[in-house]
Design goal:
Layout (H helix, E strand, L loop, with lengths): L5 H34 L1 H15 L19 E3 L6 E3 L6 H42 L1
Antiparallel strand pairs: 1-2
Helix pairs in contact: 1-2, 1-3
GO cellular component, one term: membrane
Keywords: G-protein coupled receptor, Membrane, Receptor, Transducer, Transmembrane, Transmembrane helix
GO molecular function: G protein-coupled receptor activity
């Protein structure tokens, strides 16, 4: 069971969500920068700074409210009760939309961007290898 009070649970869950989102966003920026450097070297230098600044989103609106009675999201014990996280089984419409937005914008889109970036890099390397063999 969770051994601490609700304030520590909220802080623990907030930090878990924040660091998870920051980690995935760092991987997304890294893959996109690599793609720009490999596939578009003429534009890579200028766009790297723009990309890092533009993709560093402001996560607090997506992190859930620190208030345990928030309408769209809050933090609480996990189903097993050993740790805390976002309350995923909230029944309100706002909570469902929040979880859906969190899934789409903070997980699905970054993963698709990472997949597209590395696929483009692999395609560019394959085309370059063929060009070198023919030359």
């Amino acid at each position: 069971r969770w051994l601490f009070n609700q304030a520590v649970c909220t802080l623990y869950a907030f930090c878990g969500v924040l660091f998870g989102l920051c980690s995935l966003s760092s991987l997304t920026v890294l893959s996109t920068v690599c793609c720009l450097k490999v596939c578009y070297p003429a534009y890579g230098k200028r766009w790297v700074c723009y990309l890092i600044c533009a993709y560093t989103p402001l996560y607090p609106p997506l992190l859930g409210r620190l208030c345990p009675r928030a309408a769209y999201s809050h933090y609480g014990p996990e189903p097993y009760g050993t740790a805390c996280c976002i309350v995923w089984n909230a029944s309100s419409r706002e909570a469902t939309l929040y979880i859906l937005a969190l899934f789409i914008f903070c997980y699905l889109l970054p993963c698709l961007l990472i997949l597209a970036s590395y696929s483009l890099i692999l395609w560019r390397v394959r085309v370059s290898r063929r060009a070198v063999r023919q030359h």
